[in-house]
């Protein structure tokens, strides 16, 4: 019996390995050996994710490996017990086989499968479609120029030099402005012929309400709604949407440019 055990088990293992090589799915992964962004080739797989299906497969085959190891005690015991012991062993192996078929049907054995389809429950933020336009609550497409920019409103006093020179900041606006300049805001260099500086803040679309609140706060310095646009990043292959708040050029911004 010992000779049978020493010959049968290695032969059975080789047969299983051969069957695995014949029927296993070949899923080559080019990303595993792809070079890093810095250009250095990886020595092994650089990914850190480990699917739980691998553990299910490992535990399942561990049970079958243990059964192979105990085939010799089973064969020996069948010499000394009646057919009752034989059928107990067969029922136990049948239960293991049913579990194996169940795991196979559930897809747990296909642990190398890459699920590239997005999950149904994953929330998706709505991003504005289209190219460079100002967000408005009504359709003002007739007020746009040929390049998509909004036409200057004739007669608006905010465009006059007198309005820009006499306009001043309230104490609360000064505190908010200093906080913005210490964070994500900036005051550009003079861009108009009469001088003055422009306040500019850019954020992602997730901060649209935040910029809209600032737009209302500095309503005396702006004439246009928030500017919405998008740009395509060639490195990541994704399109990013953002919104921009910018004021007209005012002399009262000059003293805060160095913050």
Automatic annotation (TrEMBL):
* Signal peptide start and end residues: 1-24
InterPro entries named in the record: Homing_endonucl, LAGLIDADG_dom, NADH_UbQ/plastoQ_OxRdtase_su3, NDAH_ubi_oxred_su3_sf
UniProt KW keywords: Electron transport, Membrane, Mitochondrion, NAD, Respiratory chain, Signal, Translocase, Transmembrane, Transmembrane helix, Transport, Ubiquinone
Domain Homing endonuclease LAGLIDADG, by residue range, is 175-255
Q: Where is the composition biased (Low complexity)?
A: 133-142
Q: Which GO terms describe its molecular function?
A: endonuclease activity; NADH dehydrogenase (ubiquinone) activity
Is the S-adenosyl-L-methionine keyword given for this protein?
no
Q: What is its EC number?
A: 7.1.1.2
From the record, give the transmembrane residue ranges: 48-72, 84-102
Whether Lipid metabolism counts among this entry's keywords is no
Disordered as annotated region, ranges: 112-158
Main EC class the enzyme belongs to: translocase
Q: What is the catalytic activity of this protein?
A: a ubiquinone + NADH + 5 H(+)(in) = a ubiquinol + NAD(+) + 4 H(+)(out)
SUPFAM superfamilies, alphabetically?
A: Homing endonucleases (SSF55608)
Q: Which GO terms describe its cellular component?
A: mitochondrial membrane; NADH dehydrogenase complex
Q: Which domain of life is it from?
A: Eukaryota
Localisation per UniProt entry:
Membrane; Mitochondrion membrane
- Membrane association type: Multi-pass membrane protein
Q: What is its main location?
A: membrane
Job of this protein:
Core subunit of the mitochondrial membrane respiratory chain NADH dehydrogenase (Complex I) which catalyzes electron transfer from NADH through the respiratory chain, using ubiquinone as an electron acceptor. Essential for the catalytic activity of complex I.
Q: Which PANTHER family match?
A: NADH-UBIQUINONE OXIDOREDUCTASE CHAIN 3
What is the similarity comment for this entry? Belongs to the complex I subunit 3 family.
Q: Supply the name of the protein.
A: NADH-ubiquinone oxidoreductase chain 3
Species assigned in the record: Rhizophagus fasciculatus
Gene from which this protein is expressed: nad3
């Amino acid at each position: 019996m010992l000779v049978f055990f020493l010959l049968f088990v290695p032969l059975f293992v080789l047969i299983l390995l051969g069957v695995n090589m014949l029927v296993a799915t070949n899923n080559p992964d080019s990303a595993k050996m792809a070079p890093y962004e810095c250009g250095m080739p990886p020595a092994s797989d650089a990914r850190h994710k480990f699917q739980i299906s691998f553990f299910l497969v490992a535990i399942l085959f561990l049970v079958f490996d243990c059964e192979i190891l105990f085939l010799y005690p089973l064969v020996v015991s069948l010499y000394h017990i009646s057919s009752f012991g034989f059928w107990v062993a067969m029922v136990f192996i049948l239960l293991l086989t049913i579990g194996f078929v169940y795991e196979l049907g559930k897809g747990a054995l296909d642990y190398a499968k890459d699920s590239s389809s997005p999950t149904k429950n994953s929330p998706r933020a709505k991003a504005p479609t289209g190219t460079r336009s100002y967000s408005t609550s009504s359709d003002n497409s007739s007020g746009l120029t040929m390049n998509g920019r909004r036409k200057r409103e004739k007669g608006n006093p905010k465009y006059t030099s007198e309005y820009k020179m006499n306009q001043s900041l309230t104490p609360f606006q000064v505190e908010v402005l200093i906080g913005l300049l210490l964070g994500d805001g900036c005051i550009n260099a003079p861009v108009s012929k009469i001088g003055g500086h422009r306040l500019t803040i850019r954020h992602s679309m997730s901060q649209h309400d935040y910029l809209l609140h600032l737009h209302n706060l500095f309503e005396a310095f702006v004439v246009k709604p928030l500017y919405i646009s998008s740009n395509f990043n060639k490195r990541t292959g994704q399109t990013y949407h953002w919104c921009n708040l910018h004021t007209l050029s005012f002399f009262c911004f000059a003293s805060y440019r160095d913050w």
